[in-house]
Amino acid sequence: MTGWLAIAGLGPGAAQLVTPEVTQSLAEATDLIGYGPYVTRVPERAGLTRHLSDNREEIDRASLALRLAAEGKRVVVVSSGDPGVFAMAAAVFEAVETGDPSWCDLDIRVLPGISAMFAAAARIGAPLGHDFCAINLSDNLKPWDLVERRLRLAAQADFVIALYNPLSSARPWQLGRALDLLREELPGEVPVVFASAVSDAKEAIETVTLRDAGAGRADMRTLVLIGSSRTRLIARSGGKPFVYTPRSIGVVS
Amino acid sequence: MTGWLAIAGLGPGAAQLVTPEVTQSLAEATDLIGYGPYVTRVPERAGLTRHLSDNREEIDRASLALRLAAEGKRVVVVSSGDPGVFAMAAAVFEAVETGDPSWCDLDIRVLPGISAMFAAAARIGAPLGHDFCAINLSDNLKPWDLVERRLRLAAQADFVIALYNPLSSARPWQLGRALDLLREELPGEVPVVFASAVSDAKEAIETVTLRDAGAGRADMRTLVLIGSSRTRLIARSGGKPFVYTPRSIGVVS
Hints:
Two copies of one chain form a homodimer. Chain A is of the alpha/beta class. Helices cover 28% and strands 26% of the residues of chain A. The longest helix of chain A has 13 residues, at 58-70. Chains A and B meet through helix 1, helix 4, strand 5, helix 5 and strand 6 of A and helix 1, helix 4, strand 5, helix 5 and strand 6 of B. Strand 7 (132-136) of chain A pairs antiparallel with strand 7 of chain B, so a sheet runs across the interface.
């Protein structure tokens, strides 16, 4: 039997946002590996072994996946969103580079998924309609100074900014500090979107101004989008405003 | 009949990368609108009117879609990739803001898709594994000075940089200029990926160094990924190298 390893993105939550490619790999798998809440999104079935792990054991999880694939298993490592965006794909390739040399030549495929920022953006309009960036606000694996430097340069570039992993119980102050820093660089009227549990039953999305944006609106499952100076709101009588960033500089002003 | 408008992302090309949500909206639609090559990806069927248009008529196309939805049609505007990334969603919301005031209260939904940079990244490893940005290299709707400013700040932030729309027959010199500018800011060894027609039969992906990257490797369908100073290659005896950007600063060095 020839083993393989697929690193698959389950998207933000809804089954309607999982690609057929990912669904097919899950149907063919013998082993499923990932953070507990993601693994349990995939129904149990005969012939499938589910390996649930803690959130922090990424390299261990990646190495287990590679060992099983080398033994001939058909292994799927699941991530939420897109596996290449602040998720398991980079951890697997780190394990490939630093682990058993034979792992380089395994059949390893990355199966893309809908990342949180696109799911969130789609629910409110088109805030990413112009140039944008994505920053992981966690300083577990990089110095906080670098996060601050990137936030400042991104604001000066007038990118729309997506903030992943804005805070956790172990990182309670980082989002507040980031918002303070962005207020030094950007107009107070810039729209800020707090999008939680997008496409789930618990979905909650609110749009405020940067002036009024407080870290208390976010939790571990929140994606924060900071508009550029051009990002606009369209009021609606029947619901929340649309938020979008025009493609042009100066077309709507 | 209650009309609606869905702005749907078809992904990079392969049917396996179209979400079930998009497939369902296409099955329910009465009218399909978009740039010719994208519309013709959707098979003809009884009850579906296909409106093919030129690449440049985005606001006309958006206004037609809104008028039809207001008349009670079930309209899908198709984009390749994700509709919110340098595609039709922002054009539709521009048309909403500047057009008939009643359009604000139409049922308008954006259905996300797999954008080119994630499809390309997945084919080679995990180059977007750390902070990154996306820049539309077209200066049709923004001044070239702003593109240069963003490129420079993005390189100084050490983002991985995805360049969309790198060149066309009407914009022949912009990618070359961008690469020259990036060579002033980044080490020559930084990997650069040219990814064309990802997931299609004509897929072609090559990875070179920034030092050797020339605009001649790109065409209209190419997505260009510029690594950060941390982006790494893993050689393989059996094929092209993997390209990835570690999650950590300093974990692999």
